[in-house]
Amino acid sequence: QLQLVESGGGLVQAGASRRLSCVASGRAISTYPMGWFRQVPGKERDFVASLTASGADTYYADSVKGRFTISRDNAKNTVSLQMNDLKVEDTAVYYCAAAHGGWGPNQAHYRYWGQGTQVTVSS
Fold first, then answer.
1. pLDDT for 46-97, tens place per residue?
2. DSSP conformational letter for 105
3. Are 44 and 106 within 8 A, CB to CB?
4. Nearest to 22 by CA among 11, 41, 31, 9
């Protein structure tokens, strides 16, 4: 069973940067496409970014394109999300997820999910 644990959330000011990490255990993530999603209370969970198992291809939500960067280190079994120029509307719980049979924004591809880490951006 693949387990995912996110870290790096917290309170930041608008315009600042933050790096989220997702550490996997139980299995190697090297064969899994990975993604980041986020959710605001009372709203649906939204796609943020995804990358293929090799890391060669990435895909971003329009709202974060140019500001966020997803990356992975298969040797360390980790996936990261570098968030720059944070905005108040980026406030959410961020989830790491591992996909099987596909990748990208479709949440149906994602089989394993972490518990999430809260990111709060203040103005």
1. 999 999 999 999 999 999 999 999 999 999 999 999 999 999 999 999 999 9
2. S
3. no
4. 9
